[in-house]
Amino acid sequence: MPVFRLHRSLIGAACLAGASLLTACSDGGSNSSSGSAASPDNAPPAASATTLERAKSSGTLRVGYANEAPFAYMDSASGRLTGEAPEILRHVTNELGIANIEGVLTEFGSLIPGLQAGRFDAIAAGMYITPERCQQVLFSNPTYGIGSAFLVAEGNPKGLHSFNDVAEHDDASLGVVVGAIEADYARQTGVPAERVVVFPDAASALAGVQAGRVDAYAATALTASDLLRKGTNGVERAEPFTDPEIDGKSVRGHGAFAFRPADTELRDAFNEVLAGYLGTPEHAQAVEPFGFTAAELPGEATAALLCEG
Description:
Elements: E1 24-26, H1 51-58, E2 60-65, E3 73-75, E4 80-82, H2 84-96, E5 100-105, H3 111-116, E6 122-128, H4 131-134, E7 138-139, E8 144-146, E9 148-153, H5 163-168, E10 174-177, H6 181-188, E11 196-199, H7 202-210, E12 216-220, H8 221-229, E13 235-237, E14 245-246, E15 249-250, E16 253-259, H9 264-277, H10 281-287, H11 303-307
Parallel strand pairs: 2-5, 2-6, 10-11, 10-12
Antiparallel strand pairs: 1-5, 3-4, 6-16, 7-16, 8-16, 9-12, 9-13, 14-15
Helix pairs in contact: 2-9
């Protein structure tokens, strides 16, 4: 197991949602959502308490996730919320004295509105830090940095190896997940909006490639690798692949936890724990099952720098 080194910075099987994607999914791991109500000996603080104080008092932090492996998803066999973000989250909440985490399954594009509406206390979905999102939420420092990838039909019939290839191919269509950064990459590299098909989740986008609805599905490199490991039929990864260039620079996505703008105390507490955890052997062991290695460490990137663009 390689030992990560970090100078400074930072979670698929589906959860069975009932009538709504906003169904809360209990985490059956060591940080389960059972016992989230405060006991008589641990009465909740006054309404003016901060989110961090309330989470410590109740013993539970509620987090929104989008059921996208390898970042955050519900393992149907164990009923455990897992992935890169939840496993890091367990370490952080344990250090902060919060015993349980409770996952709230939410469509990716509804995560920020859900956070703003108070449906959960944080977003734990590997969400990329972007200047636009920084106007709506507070981000922790990043926990990883990765590039993009295309999933295409076997043989890559239209020879799509970059966002620019899609833009320049008059009849090529591109699938993206609602709210994902790849939609921005498509727009900024000149892919016409009418040739971009938006899907609710990764599984639907993959099915779109298999059914011929789109010629390529743009995702993070780790999402693409995870889907292919599950034995998808008739689909392959576009090789080679060139990451998009925005304003003359090759872009690399950096994922992090997100909080409401008022929750600076919670964000700062997260960052303090992350600074001492990322890059350690313990961190490496926690995220290795999801395909994360030393190559995905965020290095010197911070939320402040990424929010500046």
